[in-house]
Write a structure and sequence with these properties.
Length: 301
Amino acid sequence: MDFLLGGCAATCAGLFSNPFDVIKTRQQLQGELIDAASETQRNPYRSIFKSIESILKAEGISGLQKGLVSALAFQFTMNSIRLGIYQTAENYEWTRGSSKFGTLMYSIFWGGISGVVGATVACPLYMIKTQIQATSHGKYAVGFQHNHTGTMDALAGIYRTYGIKGLWRGYPGIVTRTAVGSSAQLATFSSFKDFFVQFEFFQQSVAFTAFAASMFSGFFCCVFMSPFDVIATRLFNQGVDANGRGLLYRSVWDCFSKTLRAEGLHGLYKGFVPNYWRIAPHTILNLTFWDQFKSWKDLYY
């Protein structure tokens, strides 16, 4: 049941956060391996508002929900596993140490482990989501254009061309991204929940406690995860040769070093603002839904 509740919570949150995910993906791919001076010549996604304007002009209102099916499938698959494992660890008190520092370290560990397992299973869906969200046309196209017609078309096409291995291309990128993000998110969420429940106001409402804790958790998650999110997006979206090898990057480190050399530290934090506006509401909604669903489960079962 804990696994199912985690997946349902993430799916509910994904409906609201997907437009920011589309914007974040476009900004992370815009000016890929181009220095900042050259990038300003063509910049349709230079801000959130400019990004929305560009997407509406090129693709209409539906463009803001591009990749929604694969995004929700990824959220359900990854978070049912991730939150289910983490909740199981909490149920057995494996996240509790003999001190606050020990508890934080155990929470970080289990947050990372649960994230890695979830990302391993859901990796193909994240790749498809990224490639569909990046697809546009004309001057609004950024990054490599895969031109999938939908989630099932993308999965079938990649499998036919590159086999099962092709569906996990870029896997190290999402594992690194999710391990860091999950550790930061779940550890800080648990820590802030423990802090807020000391106050009488928060003791009266599970929803308010989860909402306040997830606001802070979302910020820390975004700060730590953003560089790895950029790397994962670029690894998954790059074109490949006939053998399925990436045309731009060979590994996480290769992507990191090339991005840093070409674009500086700014390149590793591209899309930070929409990423925060994606992560913060998603964290708030996901973890608030999760806690609320768990409280209903405890009430009726």
